[in-house]
TrEMBL record:
Transmembrane segments: none annotated. GO terms for molecular function: GTP binding; GTPase activity; RNA binding. This is Ribosome biogenesis GTPase A. The keyword Thylakoid does not apply. It comes from Caldisalinibacter kiritimatiensis. Keywords: Cytoplasm, GTP-binding, Hydrolase, Nucleotide-binding, RNA-binding. Belongs to the TRAFAC class YlqF/YawG GTPase family. MTG1 subfamily. Residues 13-178 form the CP-type G domain. Required for a late step of 50S ribosomal subunit assembly. Has GTPase activity. PANTHER family: MITOCHONDRIAL RIBOSOME-ASSOCIATED GTPASE 1.
Length: 283
């Protein structure tokens, strides 16, 4: 898979995140609950350092309940606060706010002792592209994120978004590109739509997804499309799905582009099932 994530952009963004960290009290690390490993940029651990951090596992509705529980336990063992969220429906966002307040409680109390009251808690969201940053911001803000304008002591041009619970979010890109240490990372990002289909062969991608689902979720695949999936070649399963769904072009040939997009769309929308592609025991 030949995917170019523009290292120059990544370097610039890393510098931006590092520069602005001193302005915030807490960092929200946004991951896709279906692929917490692949949707993580390993540089974030180094960049964030000792700054209070909450791992936000978005799209929990599209991942399996059992896997979600395993990931929460995994982060607990590492001493990292993690929250399961469905940002599109606003589910879990109140927990982000309550945990944030608890994490920053001592700092806010010290400020009160100095006579500084009702100071907003300031946050930054970091993550890889297309895992739901805008949706999460709107959910936390309770509206289409209205900027609050420049604030005293902040570099000119910095914009803060008012969130619920006396929180403010620094409106910077906060986006880092993933590192492709192996092909699995690229494939998982592509399966979930984090990598735009325009730069990847969708027919091959759908074939690889069918192969993956045959391995980890054969029953949901079988039930969704009423096809046999066990002990069969992925291309044969793909052909059967095409025939079942009428993805045929003139002359009776299979329309591979159409069936590929159908399978990818239905997987990403959860129509095949709530499926997690990575578990903690994969580490």
């Amino acid at each position: 898979m030949n995917i170019n994530w523009f290292p120059g952009h990544m370097k610039k963004t890393k510098e931006l995140v590092k520069k602005n960290l001193k302005l915030v009290d807490v960092v929200f690390e946004l991951l896709d609950a279906r692929i917490p490993l692949s949707s993580k940029n390993p540089d974030i651990d180094v960049l964030v350092g000792n700054k209070p951090r909450i791992v936000v596992l978005n799209k929990q509705d599209l991942s399996s309940d059992e896997a979600n529980k395993q990931w929460i336990k995994y982060y607990e063992k590492k001493g990292i606060k993690a929250v399961l969220v469905d940002a599109a429906k606003g589910k879990g966002t109140e927990k982000i706010i309550s945990i944030t307040k608890d994490m920053i409680k001592n700092k806010m109390e010290r400020l009160k002792e100095k006579g500084i009251k009702n100071k907003p808690i300031r946050a930054m969201i970091v993550g890889v592209p297309n895992v739901g940053k805008s949706t999460l911001i709107n959910s936390l803000a309770g509206s289409k994120s209205a900027k609050t304008g420049n604030r005293p002591g902040v570099t000119k041009g910095k914009q803060w978004i008012k969130l619920r619970g006396n929180l403010e979010l620094l409106d910077t890109p906060g986006i880092l590109w993933p590192k492709f240490e192996d092909e699995k990372v690229g494939l998982n990002l592509a399966f979930t739509g984090a990598i735009k289909d325009e730069i990847i062969d969708v027919e091959t991608l759908a074939l690889r997804l069918v192969e993956k689902l045959q391995e980890i979720a054969p029953l949901p695949l079988k039930e969704r499309y009423s096809v046999e999936v066990e002990d069969r070649k992925p291309i044969d399963v793909l052909d059967d799905i095409a025939l079942k769904r009428g993805c045929i072009i003139k002359g009776g040939e299979i329309d591979y582009t159409r069936v590929a997009r159908l399978i990818l769309d239905e997987f990403r929308n959860g129509k095949i099932g709530s499926i997690t592609l990575e578990y903690p025991d994969n580490i």
